[in-house]
Design goal:
With 79 residues, the chain is α+β, with helices and mostly antiparallel strands. The protein is 37% helix and 16% strand. It has a 3-stranded antiparallel sheet with strand order 2-1-3, with helices on one face. The protein is globular and about 40 Å long. The chain starts with 5 loop residues before the first helix and ends in a 7-residue tail after the last strand.
């Protein structure tokens, strides 16, 4: 993994800075699944192996699916 320098971090959009700050252990809980990230990228709102079920879960939570970012979480050696 490349090192992110403070200078590079400062140039990233807020969403990306927030996403990077999510602890690795949190990401590891969702390996092989789809996740929905909060609008600001600061947290994983929910995850599921099936993106359709994840979408439905987001709606059931009262969240707007257009306000979250859906992302697949791969095994670390494939990232």
């Amino acid at each position: 993994m490349d090192t992110i320098t403070p200078e590079l971090l400062a140039r990233l959009p807020a969403f990306d800075r927030n996403r990077i700050a999510i602890p690795t252990a949190e990401w590891q809980r969702y390996i092989g699944q789809w996740v929905a990230l909060s609008e600001d990228g600061s947290r994983i709102v929910a995850g599921d192996e099936d993106i359709g079920r994840l979408y439905d879960r987001i709606v059931a939570m009262g969240l707007d699916p257009a306000a979250v970012t859906f992302e697949g979480v791969e095994e670390p050696d494939t990232i």
